[in-house]
Amino acid sequence: MNIHSVPRPSADLASRLLESALALFAERTYEGTQMPTVAQHARVGVGSIYRYFPSKEALGNAAFRHAKGGLLAELTRTTAEPADSTREEFAQIWQGFTRFAGSYPAAFAFLEHQQHDTFLDAESRALAAEIDAFSTGFIERGQQAGEIRDGDPLLLVALALGAFGGLLKTIRPQLITELSPEALAGAESAVWDLLHRKT
């Protein structure tokens, strides 16, 4: 069950439960969070959570799809306009990541934990594969254009995301949008240098 299948009158409560779950998963990890703790964080009775999410796995999958789907939507928005070069497309993707991380720090931190293999269902794995395809597609286009270094696209994506995650750990995600334009541009340039084929 995901957020979109919750009956309309109860959508606000389901959303609150998902936000509480994401906050706790980001802070304590999925494995370290119990269902009663999520209910307490959302200020509802324990029984309420089971009306929307019949198990911890159902809640974890709904939270994953809520976060991953939000990230994919943001990346899709920021890359809607065709880019003139691989470097410009990278700038669009960077903007999407920084905007999502700054607006939804708990969701981004949860995704960054890479702790999902123990509970993801087929629908969640399909969504994860969709965003992987988005990322590797960018790398492959850049390699074909001669602008991105050779190598396994998934590995190059992991290197870039690792650098971005390291930046967020240093400054905290919710503050990334408060960095000066110069600082953000410098960080973007440094991550691009990981990917760029040197001439």
UniProtKB/TrEMBL annotation:
Pfam families: TetR_C_10 (PF16295), TetR_N (PF00440)
HTH tetR-type domain span: 11-71
Keywords: DNA-binding
DNA-binding region positions on the chain: 34-53
Keyword DNA-binding: yes
UniProt name for this protein: TetR/AcrR family transcriptional regulator
Organism: Streptomyces albipurpureus
Organism placement in taxonomy: Bacteria, Bacillati, Actinomycetota, Actinomycetes, Kitasatosporales
